[in-house]
UniProtKB/TrEMBL annotation:
Listed PANTHER family: NB-ARC DOMAIN-CONTAINING PROTEIN-RELATED, RPP4C3
Protein name, UniProt field: Putative leucine-rich repeat domain, L domain-containing protein
Organism lineage: Eukaryota, Viridiplantae, Streptophyta, Embryophyta, Tracheophyta
Chloroplast among keywords: no
Entry annotated with the keyword NADP: no
Pfam families per UniProt: LRR_RPS2
Organism from which the protein derives: Medicago truncatula
Coiled-coil stretches noted in the UniProt entry, renumbered to this chain: none
Keywords: Plant defense
Amino acid sequence: MEQADAYMILQTQNSSSLFTKMTFVALSGYDSEEATFPYWFLENVHTLDSLIVEMSSFKKIFQDRGEISEKTHAQIKKLILNELPELQQICEEGCQIDPVLEFLEYLDVDSCSSLINLMPSSVTLNHLTQLEIIKCNGLKYIFTTSTARSLDKLTVLKIKDCNSLEEVITGVENVDIAFNSLEVFKLKCLPNLVKFCSSKCFMKFPLMEEVIVRECPRMKIFSAGNTSTPLLQKVKIAKNDEEWLWQGNLNDTIYNMFQDKEGFDGLEHLFSL
């Protein structure tokens, strides 16, 4: 639905009656510099559970604390943000988005190059099961430790082509973080990623069986703290299914990958002289 279509619907008498059974909305083409997200959808589409926002110039999705009022009944389970080059924040710190995103299960953010913050530290994502972040070159981290502790149901985490990303989890707290449901974890083409978590958190991944780490040349270790991965026995390091590596634990495996990369680069430089 483009901006002109949304405006026409808004001007329709008894427009709220048009949305009584709508579960999915795609917003596209809000490309003016002054474009703001049409919050009235959230107040009128009570049955909305899937939202796509793409090819628009929004700087924020959920903009102000007061914008999401007590009238809002939508509970979004699937949120896709695609090709939003001006988007800086999904919502501000302190934004009261819990009524809308409390039951969010699927989040896909692609080609949002100005995004500097995925979610405020105050936000919990207790129902999130799948997260995919691609080509978001403004992000330096994905979660704070407080948000990460709420990801009990996350089963799939994929991060790719984020050139500025330095860590996935940031924070100073030395706390336990349990990813009790995470099974698939992929990090690809992250040239500035140093580690998954920089604080000395003890992290548990009881169900994780598949880890892919590829083209992360600065990643020396997985985490500054200890990590428990009882089912994990290998890390995929190349496109083909032949190249896997395991050195007894995740930190040693990542360090070995880094050392091999350093050695290969040294040889490559030597033979190019």
